[in-house]
């Protein structure tokens, strides 16, 4: 039962925004799974800011995707054929399946998802995935906010940012979110319980931060970089902390200057630490236990932004860089 | 026994380099010490890169020096008159006496130096002062180099940098120093035991770092900022650490851009921490015990660069920003 696959392969490294011509749409027949292998039909493809990093060949935390290779991406799928114990046809699995319809390969690259949780499948691409772990460890391990401290999170209506703010509230911090539309601001404030929200597209971020952080900023969960990072640095307190999770405003421009207020890291004795969720893989259970509990208690809400059709991935991924998504952006490749 | 004092008072905030006209030379008669006060004759005035920060009104770790106020500075002096127990005439004392010949004021702002140590008085403005503590805590508390790791220190022939490299060698790290002349490079390599030295004025820093750090950089003790910081960031390893002690290349230019390779803090999961030696005051004894022991064992060498005459301070301080000093720069105000 070989399958007809379609895949987006990296054709050339993007210059600035990702163009469709940077990827090539290919059709190929995949073989049956060999001993120890499974065939996975991809249902959801995760689109993430880091996709842009992987397409480039800058020095980065994983090898860049090679030219001619299937574009890397996180996927949820269903086992269609199995040649190994522990993976049954019909099992839901999670893994780095890439920008394609099927994977045939070693089963141990895939994790079987728990059954009968009552949770929608997409939860395993949000809260209960590397997304949730990113928010959890970046905030709690690096920023470590104390009750009453002020936490600022940007890209606050994004998949990670929206969880960061909610976890900070669970930890009794004061939370200010920065997002890119009035709708997003309304959502994080009215529905997610952020104390304040700033629309960076229509408001003066520095002035609003001054107003909303009268005691200064103790923790920043940084997803964006650029001017927003400078504005935050300007108002950070002595001995404050920055969890550096992303710099999405700079991914399309390698010549972007660094933060002008870098000197405040010295003046205010700030601790900045970059991290990648995979650094915390050994502690995954710790995060999943808390995140699962908080979800069951109704303390963590999330939004998914599901777009149809693998063929649209190269256009849709750019929505991340202009904030045109609300919540976790993913492509639905096939039916659940 | 009132004294005739001369002082440099801040007249205006410098724009770029410090000009003599930014300070005003004043003469005034000081009163006798009141109850609880002493009169200190200043012998040595410490000149430090941070002087430039104090003259500006940027957001900083101490209040800026006010216009019309005596310029702030660390001093060693001799008690000339005392109106308080515990401070005897002739005692050597250390404190923030400022850019002036005498201080009359509260004794508790001054620390009596140990007697009969066999050490020159200037040692208490070098190794056994906030200079030594800066090197000690920045390197050991923030960078925490492991044996065999590679430490890069810039301004490496400076008062702090030269100690950082020697302490890193005591801890069995590999040490590469960056300094501004062949003489300085020769000194840190041949006399202080640095493994390698780079003359940033004549050599390509990035290329030499690549050559001298074949296993990448694990720790940076940052005094300089600017292009040198970018070059280091380019070669830093995963989970490496930066002790951010100073950014001397940027103090005269508030519009200096931040490090372009800031993104590597994310990609390489680097930890950057700014610090000021006063943050570690509670642990001063810990540093002094080790530094004193290492000095006695001949493991720590230092150089002082003593210039005569308080009236020259406004010109001499600029030598720090062009690297025209070798070792701890100080002004001799009066005889020991």
Please give a structural write-up:
2 copies of one chain form a homodimer. Chain A has 2 domains: 3-122 and 303-332, Alpha-Beta Complex (Quinone Oxidoreductase, Chain A, domain 1); 130-278, Rossmann fold (3-Layer(aba) Sandwich), CATH 3.40.50.720. Helices cover 25% and strands 27% of the residues of chain A. Chain A has helices spanning 50-55, 130-143, 159-170, 182-191, 205-212, 227-234, 263-267, 284-296, 313-316, 319-322; strands at residues 3-10, 23-30, 37-46, 75-82, 92-95, 102-106, 110-112, 150-154, 174-179, 196-199, 217-222, 236-244, 271-274, 304-308, 328-332. In chain A, helix 6 links the parallel strand 11 and strand 12 (236-244). In chain A, helix 2 packs across helix 3 and helix 2 crosses helix 8 (284-296). The two termini of chain A are 20 Å apart. The relative contact order of chain A is 0.16. The model of chain A has no long low-confidence stretch (mean pLDDT 94). The interface between A and B is large, with 36 and 36 residues. Strand 13 (271-274) of chain A pairs antiparallel with strand 13 (271-274) of chain B.
Quick synopsis:
Chain A is 25% helix and 27% strand. With 336 residues, the first copy, chain A, is α/β, with parallel strands linked by helices.
């Amino acid at each position: 039962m070989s399958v007809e696959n379609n895949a987006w392969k990296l054709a050339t490294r993007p210059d600035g925004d990702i163009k469709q011509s940077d990827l090539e749409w290919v059709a190929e027949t995949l073989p049956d799974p060999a001993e120890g292998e499974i065939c996975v039909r991809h249902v959801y493809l995760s689109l993430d800011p880091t996709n842009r990093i992987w397409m480039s060949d800058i020095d980065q935390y994983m090898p860049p995707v090679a030219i001619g290779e299937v574009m890397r991406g996180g996927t949820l799928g269903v086992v269609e054929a199995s040649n190994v114990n522990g993976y049954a046809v019909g099992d839901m699995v999670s893994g780095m399946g890439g920008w394609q319809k099927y994977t045939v390969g070693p089963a141990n690259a895939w994790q079987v998802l728990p059954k009968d949780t009552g949770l929608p499948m997409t939860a395993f691409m949000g809260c209960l995935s590397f997304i949730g772990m990113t928010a959890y460890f970046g905030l709690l391990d690096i920023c470590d906010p104390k009750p009453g401290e002020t936490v600022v999170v940007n890209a606050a209506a994004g998949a990670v940012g929206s969880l960061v703010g909610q976890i900070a509230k669970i930890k009794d911090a004061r939370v200010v979110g920065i997002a890119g539309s009035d709708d997003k601001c309304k959502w994080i404030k009215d529905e997610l319980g952020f104390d304040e929200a700033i629309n960076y597209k229509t408001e003066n971020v520095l002035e609003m931060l001054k107003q909303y952080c009268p005691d200064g900023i103790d923790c920043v969960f940084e997803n964006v970089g650029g001017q927003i990072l400078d504005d935050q640095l300007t108002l950070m307190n002595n001995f404050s902390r920055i969890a550096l999770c992303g710099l999405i405003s700079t991914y399309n421009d390698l010549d972007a200057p660094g933060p002008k207020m870098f000197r405040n890291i010295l003046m205010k004795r700030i601790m900045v630490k970059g991290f990648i969720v995979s650094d915390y893989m050994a502690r995954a259970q710790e995060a999943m236990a808390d995140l699962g509990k908080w979800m069951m208690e109704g303390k963590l809400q999330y939004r998914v932004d599901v777009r149809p059709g693998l063929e649209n991935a190269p256009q849709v991924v750019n929505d991340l860089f202009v904030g045109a998504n609300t919540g976790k952006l993913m492509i639905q490749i096939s039916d659940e």
